[in-house]
Amino acid sequence: MKRVPISRNIVLRIFVTILYVSIGATCAVQGIRIAEAGTTAQIPQLEGDGGGNFLFGILIVFSGIPFLYKPRITAIATLFSSLVGLAAGLLYQDVQLTEVSIASLISGSMMLLYPLIRCAFRATTKKVASIRRPKHVQTL
What we know:
Layout lengths: L7 H34 L2 H21 L6 H21 L3 H36 L10
Helix pairs in contact: 1-2, 2-3, 3-4
């Protein structure tokens, strides 16, 4: 049988997609539990916070699925879902949702800015490599 090589890029995309889906599913389940607790205790703030967590989790799941094919679409969808989660976290004063939303906002921004960062890094390393060094270095 002939062995088919698997690209590291494909493995990375599958891993990141699984990561997005698992984090989103965890947030969604946590949101349902928080909303149930708020409904049981008749606390409207917990109900709203659970709804915000659930919405953020579902949006993260849906934004992670296209990562297999188009990572740029995932970056834009992640930024949108992060802004929704951040708004819900700030509105219902949920520190955990706010922190997770900020982290995913940073990751979405890094996915969009990656080509620019890569070009800047390559240009910097080329410039540093082309600097002539003196043949005789004076030591102290």
